[in-house]
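My main concern about presentation is that the manuscript never shows what a single data entry looks like. An entry of this sort, consisting of the sequence and the corresponding backbone structure tokens, reads as follows:
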Amino acid sequence: MILFLCAANSPSNFGADEVINASEIDPVEVIKQLTNGRGADLVIDCVGGYAGIKSFEQAQDMVADRGTIQLIALYQQQPLPLHAAKIMQKQLVAGILTDELPMKTALRAMNSIEKGIIQVKKMITHQFPYTEAKEAFDFLWYTPEKGLGVLLDWEI
């Protein structure tokens, strides 16, 4: 089962079996219910920003024993709370660790986009002209919970 957790109304389920709006319901409780109390085998935490601190705590609560938490976000130079009692018997991966060559990873991603497996257009929530790059980065820095996919448009 693939779950998609979001902090606000999402324009799509992005191919997930279930969509959980974390601003409306406790995602930890939902994960526990859906897995009969076991927890998720894999939690990919890519929230980042100030909201990411809470999502990292939730990830520790929703991952199953022998499960993995993968962090793919930046947290505005804030320390993340790592609870030893919650992380025992679990794996924590920071970043993307792979022996695959970056070009091969990029080609695989592009093929997935081309085949429609990754639905990029549905992920774009905000678009800024390149002349407003500072505003776009400020938007991401100060309100990361409001943007899923933020693009800079380089066309004149």
In short: The chain has two domains: 3-94, 102-153. The chain has six helices and seven strands. The mean pLDDT is 83.
